[in-house]
Amino acid sequence: MPSLIGNRIFSSAPATSNNHPCARPFCRIISTKRFSRSPTTSIAPRARMPSESLSQFPVQSKSTLPVVAPLEAMLFDIDGTLCDSDPIHYYAFREMLQEVGFNGGQPLTEDFFIKNISGMHNDELCHVLFPDWDFDRAMKFMEDKEQMFRRLASEQLKPVNGLDKLCKWIEDRGLKRAAVTNAPRPNAELMISMVGLASFFELLVIGSECERAKPFPDPYLNALDALRIAPEHAFAFEDSVSGTRAGVSAGMPVVGVATRNPRKLLIEAGATFVINDFQDPKLWGALEGLERN
């Protein structure tokens, strides 16, 4: 796994993506609370996804996608999937947690970040990181951390390799698309804009605006409902264990994107296969296979 520390956090030149071939005015954003799909939404929010609930979805390692023809939509996580944002999140958490004396003031490790923070939404992180804090105090910490993330991201965030090629492939075929994320809305909008996809997505679904965020399937189920697409005619891209579980539990194949998280963890979470980035021959071989079908 590439080192999070090894990435530069500060850059002398802001990253811009205004020349992205899919760049247009910002995408339509809807409130996801009005969508409902399954009785599972009655389960209490912020609980962990039981691992046994994934047993109905077999894990595959072949570079093929079990999508029922025709392919009608692709859904994307944002953080770590569209852009390599985890090093910035890691830096912000490491600096701010050390300031408040987390873990006795010892610096946050990459392993702890990957296993306990990456892919989770802030409400849940309040309980994970600060079980003894008042919730409002913990949320204030998270809000300050997100402000730090946005400041750093606006200076140096870049898209994952091959994203422009994949977006053109999707547009040329008229496929529907949505961004589905646990990131706060201001973060999500910033990242989408910075990679030049402000209007590429028909829909932006925010986990905290759903009944339950990832790792539960609600954000993906809401996106599918809004797009009027059955899960067997779509698939998702995810870089985290939490997001992979959410996509699989929504009934879709999930392609893992190994920007930072170990491949083994993504496969164990249910990813059909894992790619390095959007230039990976495994992805394009799978897409060609779908077109032949």
Write a compact overview of the structure shown.
With 293 residues, the protein is of the alpha/beta class. The protein has 10 helices and 6 strands; from the N terminus they run βαααααβαβαβαβαβα.
Explain what this protein looks like in three dimensions:
It comes from Coffea arabica (Arabian coffee). This protein is of the alpha/beta class and 293 residues long. It has 2 domains: 32-38 and 59-84 and 159-292, HAD superfamily/HAD-like (Rossmann fold, 3-Layer(aba) Sandwich); 86-156, DNA polymerase, domain 1, CATH 1.10.150. 37% of the residues lie in helices and 9% in strands. It has helices spanning 86-99, 110-116, 122-129, 135-156, 163-172, 185-194, 218-227, 241-249, 263-269, 281-292, and strands at residues 73-76, 176-181, 203-206, 234-238, 254-257, 273-275. The chain has a 6-stranded parallel beta sheet, with helices on both faces. Helix 1 packs across helix 4, helix 4 packs parallel to helix 6 and helix 8 packs parallel to helix 9. The longest helix has 22 residues, at 135-156. Mean pLDDT is 83; it is low at 5-61.
